[in-house]
Amino acid sequence: MSQLSYEHAKYLSARAYLQRYLALTKHNAKTLWLGIRIEQNLGDDNAISSYSLLLRNNFPDSDEASMLQEAGIH
Question: In 1-74, which ranges are continuous DSSP H helix?
Answer without folding.
Answer: 2-7, 11-22, 29-42, 45-58, 63-71
